[in-house]
Amino acid sequence: MAFETILYDFANGVATITFNRPKSLNAFNDQMIAETISALKSAGRDGSVRCIVMTGRGRAFSAGQDLKEVQDRDREISFGDHLREGYNKIILQMVQIEKPVIAAVNGVAAGAGCGIALAADIRIASHKASFIQAFSKVGLIPDSGSTWTLPRLVGYARAFEMAITAERISAEKALSWGLVNDVVPDKQLMDVVAAWSRSLAAGPTVAIGLTKRAMHKAAGMSLPEALQYEAQIQDIAGHTQDFHEGVLSFLEKRGPDFKGE
Ligand code: T3D
Questions:
Q1: The ligand 1 atom nearest the CA atom of 82
Q2: What share of the chain is helix, strand, coil (3-state, %, to 5)?
Q3: 125-156: per-residue pLDDT in tens?
Q4: Which residue out of 23, 24, 25 has the highest number of ligand 1 atoms within 8 Å of its CB and is therefore the one to mutate?
Q5: What is the crossing angle of helices 146-154 and 156-165, to 10°?
Q6: Angle CA(143)–CA(51)–CA(6) in degrees, nearest 5?
Q7: 111 alpha carbon to ligand 1 midpoint, in Å?
Q8: Which residues line ligand 1 (CB under 6 A)?
Q9: Please, what is the Cα angle at 232 between 231 and 234, to 5 degrees?
Q10: What do you get for the CA distance between the two ends of the chain, in Å?
Q11: Is the per-residue pLDDT at 38 higher than 80?
């Protein structure tokens, strides 16, 4: 795949999408939005991809919407349409792809960049990373799913505080708030993420994808509904080859060789 604003690598079942506009701290222009959508689409469709990693080149994960491009934007394009055709598609794909998505947060994640990091299933942050709900600084409301993800991750009070103050939350604070899964020394970030992604790509991909689907669905369900849904999709997981391999490997006292099928 030929991209200009992102890098797309595939190895050992793991697709890595790297935002690649380091001079502007990987701010999203329209091309980068379109290329990210396209990369996610192809990683989602490609059966050999069993885990997706998203990260940024240089010292930032992403500084969100490219504000220089906003300034030049055709006034006929509404903010709503820009979100519907852009960031909303990125976020929905990240959530709807039934494969684990890891954000390797290498530096600052601001505005939509923060929203994208929050939409991942797992966030591993460098000790240099930080999180800024930068929207209010430019007179906007949190988008890219932040109104949904942030209160669920850190609770309403902290989410609202982050949104209205637009203050930088350090990696350490993010860890103590439950915003990230782990914080590691910067030099070790990609090694730690590689260990996570290798392990997830060798996992029972269908069951992992269904877990993701069920947890997202359960957010809008009562307990009885969630129990029903679990029963319904356990029928799918229970008919995978990986389920049979998992049980067999347990009985044979060896590690499982999951194929993601
Ligand atoms: O319809 C829609 O699209 C609405 C959607 C909106 C979604 C959003 O994301 S709104 C929020 C947009 N993002 C921001 O407001 C963040 C703006 N950036 C910053 O606040 C700071 O840059 C950071 C806190 C992220 C980092 O600060 P610092 O001091 O480490 O770096 P810096 O010096 O500010 O930035 C370095 C360069 O990156 C600089 O370029 P220069 O002067 O060296 O040529 C700066 O202009 C550029 N840059 C940083 N962020 C953006 C950017 N260029 C364009 N757009 C940016 N968002």
A1: 1
A2: 50, 15, 30
A3: 999 999 999 999 999 999 999 999 999 999 99
A4: 25
A5: 130
A6: 55
A7: 9
A8: 24-25, 27, 63-68, 79, 82-83, 108, 110-112, 132, 134-135, 137-138, 140, 143
A9: 65
A10: 25
A11: yes
